[in-house]
Design brief:
The protein is mainly alpha-helical. It has helices spanning 3-13, 18-40, 48-54, 60-75, 77-100, 105-127, 139-154. Helix content is 75%, strand content 0%.
Length: 159
């Protein structure tokens, strides 16, 4: 069995209840976005020289997403492409919200982060199983890939 299949299967074991699955479809993308938003909000500091070279494409969120995408690439190159698309959308939304919101992006992201985690834990209470990341922290990254693999399946894409 491939590593990605094993990870998705293990993750799926604690995500069987339909309500918990629905909550995950809402909360996992929100948590992912909120982390991107929080990282996007960190001032560049030591990244200033990189920003000078690359323009606005360089920030803490972009660097963190690059590392996350390398992880996805190591477990499933096809899923990494889907996660690259989703990550790019999150990064673009963080940039847009940082411009349009009448209050700081970090505040908006923090509120989303807290509310989405409350939803996640409520879903696991319904499921009557602990979140997978209590077993292994890499499941924090497998959650979004688990959702992406359902999208791939629906459209007949190999993952």
């Amino acid at each position: 069995m491939r590593k990605i299949d094993q990870l998705l299967e293990t993750y799926g074991e604690s995500h069987q209840h339909p309500t918990n699955k629905t909550i995950h479809w809402i909360c996992v993308p929100l948590i992912f976005f909120s982390i991107v938003g929080l990282l996007f909000s960190i001032p560049p500091g030591p990244l200033l020289w990189i920003q000078f070279l690359l323009g606005n494409f360089s920030n803490w969120a972009t660097l963190a997403l690059a590392a996350v995408l390398f992880y996805y690439l190591s477990v499933s190159p096809p899923l990494a492409l889907g996660m690259l698309f989703f990550s790019s959308v999150c990064l673009a939304m963080a940039n847009l919200f940082s411009i349009l919101l009448p209050f700081p992006l970090w505040m908006f992201s923090l509120i989303i982060f807290i509310l989405a985690w409350i939803g996640q834990f409520y879903g696991h209470k319904i499921e009557a199983k602990k979140p997978s990341f209590f077993q292994d922290l890499q499941f924090l990254l497998i959650g979004p890939a688990w959702l992406m693999h359902f999208i791939y399946r629906k459209f007949g894409f190999a993952y």
